[in-house]
Amino acid sequence: MVQIVNDALEQAIVDTGVEARLILCTLRHFSTADSLRTAHLVHAFEGTLVVGLDLAGNEAGHSLDAHIATFDYAHQHGLSCTAHAGEALGAQSVLETLDRLNPSRIGHGVRSIEEPALLNELKRRHVHLEVCPTCNIQIGIFESLSAHPVDQLYRAGVSVGINTDTRTLTPTTLSAEYAHLAATFCWTHHDFLRSNMMALDASFAEPAVKTRLQSVLERAYA
After folding, report:
1. What digits encode the pLDDT tens for the residues 8-51?
2. Residues 6+ apart with CB under 8 A from 207
3. Which residues are catalytic?
4. CA neighbor of 41 nearest in space, from 33, 32, 49, 50
5. CA 52, 157, 101 angle in degrees (round to 5)?
6. pTM above 0.70, yes or no
7. What is its EC class (predicted)?
8. Would you tell me which CATH number, out of the four given (3.40.640.10, 3.10.180.10, 3.30.2350.10, 3.20.20.140), belongs to the domain 2-221?
9. Burial class, 102, CB count within 10 angstroms (exposed 0-12 / middle 13-18 / buried 19+)
10. Which residues contact 97 (CB under 8 A, 6 or more apart)?
């Protein structure tokens, strides 16, 4: 299945000129064996468009215990890692995920705002937050965009990227997310370029691709 998706994505990149990569995701409710199987697949497809490992699922209902071995395996084999935290649970969930899984990115992570010391830790470790404002509001984490901490996180100097999350569940587009941020927090082209550069720096793409895309972004925003 991974091979089929990888091949289709490879063709789509050729057809559209849009760069994309694949991250294989294990889930909180998976067993250790199931979780490790995902990491083994990431390792097996190293050198293809598969570039990293993720952990998602209900952080409020399942601990990290079953996934420690998975992320240990990933780090031992030099695999890039991200993990969801700080959405259904608060800042402590983010800190626990950082300490026990050591990912370079955190999916959501927005409730890090609840603990100022954690913001400093995110900056110290150069951890990037994959922020999905509309989704967070849709599931009731925040009542409105004006109450969402994305701007506070960004102004505090935390590395923040703007994302749509699962568009089959959250009816939005990246353009809509940008428009909402501009209207609510007065983000300008400078802010969006800076956020894009943060996301590009934190991406799992190859260095040559990052360099090329940096030029594309700079020309586009100019």
Report:
1. 999 999 999 999 999 999 999 999 999 999 999 999 999 999 99
2. none
3. 87
4. 50
5. 35
6. yes
7. hydrolase
8. 3.20.20.140
9. middle
10. 64, 83, 85, 86, 103, 106
